[in-house]
């Protein structure tokens, strides 16, 4: 009898064999709800919003370590090639921008005892050509999320736009 009780507790298939009146109760009930169209449906003649077009996107990267900047620029170019973005220029400035601060070691006297501190900022630039707005947003979000520490990124977008209606082409007379 104890063997039957242990089988009863452990295996539901055995319970069905031992007791044919065993009923399976569902955990939840599913009711079918008919799909209804919303009352405020958008008409099919709604204006389609066109994607923006960018003639050029310029990336300016600044950092304190030239090796990190070089590695990050390689990463940006590789990401652009995977998305099919055309990279036209990728270069760095020859010299770093130097900012020097001179401080006195002692606050009160001894002007001849000074210390100079220098901050060097390295730059890298990447130019991308002919981008759509969605591709540009995807690319920029991806590279911004992977921006290393000690680096800054400045993005300049040059957008293509239609001529305003009040400007008309010259007529040949």
TrEMBL record:
Domain Small ribosomal subunit protein uS10: 58-156
Keywords: Mitochondrion, Ribonucleoprotein, Ribosomal protein
Domain of life: Eukaryota
Keyword Ribonucleoprotein: yes
Main localization of the protein described in the UniProt heading: mitochondrion
Compartment(s) where it occurs, according to its Swiss-Prot or TrEMBL record: Mitochondrion
Position of the signal peptide: none
GO-annotated cellular components: mitochondrial small ribosomal subunit
Pfam entry (one): Ribosomal_S10
Family: Belongs to the universal ribosomal protein uS10 family.
Entry protein name: Small ribosomal subunit protein uS10m
UniProt source species: Spodoptera litura
Name of the encoding gene: LOC111357293
């Amino acid at each position: 009898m104890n063997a039957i009780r242990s089988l009863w507790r452990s295996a539901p298939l055995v319970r069905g064999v031992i007791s044919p009146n065993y009923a399976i109760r569902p955990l939840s009930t599913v009711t079918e709800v008919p799909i209804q169209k919303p009352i405020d449906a958008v008409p099919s003649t709604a204006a389609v919003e066109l994607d923006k077009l960018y003639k050029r996107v310029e990336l300016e990267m600044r950092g304190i370590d030239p090796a990190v900047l070089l590695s990050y620029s390689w990463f940006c170019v590789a990401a652009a090639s995977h998305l099919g973005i055309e990279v036209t220029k990728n270069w760095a400035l020859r010299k770093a921008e130097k900012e020097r601060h001179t401080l006195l070691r002692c606050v009160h006297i001894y002007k001849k005892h000074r210390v100079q501190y220098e901050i060097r900022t390295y730059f890298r630039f990447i130019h991308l050509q002919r981008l759509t707005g969605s591709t540009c947003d995807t690319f920029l979000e991806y590279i911004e999320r992977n921006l290393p520490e000690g680096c800054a990124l400045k993005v300049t977008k040059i957008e293509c736009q239609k001529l305003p209606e009040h400007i008309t082409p010259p007529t040949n007379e």
